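Box 3.1 A note on notation
Throughout this textbook, protein chains are presented in two layers. The first layer is the amino acid sequence; the second is a token string describing backbone geometry. Keep the layers aligned when reading.
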Amino acid sequence: MSRKNRQQDRKAGSAGAPERRATEAVHVAGDEREPVTENRPVPVLLVALLVALLFWGDMYIMRNGGDVGGEAGAFPASVFDPYKKYADIPRAGGSQIGAKMYAQNCSICHQPGGTGIPGQFPPLAGSDWVLEEGPNRVIKLILNGIQGPITVNGQPFNNAMPQWRDMMTDEQIAAVATYIRSTWGNKAPPVKPEEVKAQRDATASRSTTWSPAELMAQPTK
């Protein structure tokens, strides 16, 4: 190689040196910024938002079921325990409110079909107590409950029924009383909220449950 050519190569190398240094610097800087695996906490705000959404969704389903916009979904609000579908809800008389109150509060003892449990809880289907023409005795029974040996349709039973005075409104007691008096083949007159109010006021000072003998002494009308 001639002297002239060597001088040209040195000049080219000197000219390219800054560019090579810049490139090397970029590579070094890039190596320092290589991604690494880290355990970083989830933002508290995101966790709180997720919990709030789950809570809202749960409450919506509990209150409204899947009955969105009037279209019955997987969990329609008008279908309630122990029933799983519309066809299972008793429709033979009685209001839907009465059916719901009975299913939620009474069916565990008196059974969904009103058959009761032998020796423990009397039946309501065909019950001589339920089918009395006047509703006052049944209303008082629901308001303050009953405890002790009782005879229903000639059969003995011995257990207790709790008070519902503070748990149900006049409208709810009237609805459930109407339901049990008009379902399972029962055909007694309906019960009105004002009739419940009258008995509630008349027994306002009573805080204890009835005995069967006490309740039998009460007028039905």
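The first strand starts at residue 146 and ends at 152. The longest helix spans residues 3-32.
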